[in-house]
Specification:
Blueprint (H helix, E strand, L loop, with lengths): L1 E7 L5 H4 L15 E5 L19 E8 L1 E6 L5 E5 L11 E7 L6 E10 L3 E5 L10 E7 L7 E6 L5 E8 L5 E6 L5 E5 L4 E5 L5 E5 L1
Antiparallel strand pairs: 1-2, 1-3, 4-5, 5-6, 6-7, 8-9, 9-10, 10-11, 12-13, 13-14, 14-15
């Protein structure tokens, strides 16, 4: 299934824009935020949330099965992927997408496919990955698995395991770097928030 990445008009409110994982130095001109958009043909108006008035949209890029987004400082966009949208399994090994600044060209990024690469974050300085410009990818190791894994994709596309497989982290996702350079991420199935200052995650909070 192809899903379109929509570019929204600058009149969008800041809370929506803050949901896109972009470094402070990244700019999108003349646009201010990217949102994942599925074209739905039969949706109750009461379920159409959020409602943004006086906004326009245009297609930024078209990719298969997009999930989470991460910008590099130069504006390159990396897109996590979930193969279930194309009729496969959520944990299938696939390649993430790389979208050049401006929305084109679009290419697959990583030499060998990675299982469940839906969560992505760009490690500009290589503080966590050990490789400047690497993309950190998180997900489960297989359908039904209770073990998660963090991988790193080097700028040349070579992928190696950063952490795991481990039952301590079931399904990592929603990566973000804080102001001090720590990497925080959620465990979707494990109900925890993790923090990394090196290659070993530590529990920050649990529910």
């Amino acid at each position: 299934m192809n899903t379109r990445l929509f570019a929204a008009h600058p009149s969008l409110e800041a809370p929506l824009a803050s949901r896109v994982d972009a470094p402070p130095s990244a700019t999108i001109r003349p646009l201010s935020v990217l949102v994942l958009g599925l074209v739905l043909t039969s949706v109750s108006p009461s379920l159409a949330q959020p409602v943004v008035k006086d906004a326009t949209r245009s297609v930024y890029a078209k990719v298969a099965d997009p999930v989470r987004l991460a910008f590099a400082p130069d504006g390159t966009l990396y897109v996590g992927r979930d193969n279930s949208g194309s009729g496969g399994g959520a944990a299938d090994a696939v390649k993430i997408h790389r979208i050049a600044p401006g929305g084109a060209p679009v290419s697959e990024f990583v030499k060998a496919a990675i299982a469940d690469p839906d969560a992505v974050v760009y490690d500009a300085a290589g503080v966590i990955s050990g490789i400047a410009g690497a993309v950190i990818v998180g997900g489960v190791t297989a359908d039904g698995s209770t073990e998660g894994r963090l991988s790193r994709i080097a700028p040349d596309g070579a992928a190696t395991t950063l952490f795991g497989p481990s039952s301590a982290i079931v399904n990592p996702g929603d990566f973000v770097f804080d102001a001090t350079g720590r990497l925080l991420f959620t465990d979707v199935d494990g109900g925890k928030v993790w923090v990394m200052t090196n290659a070993t995650p530590q529990t920050l909070a649990s529910g």
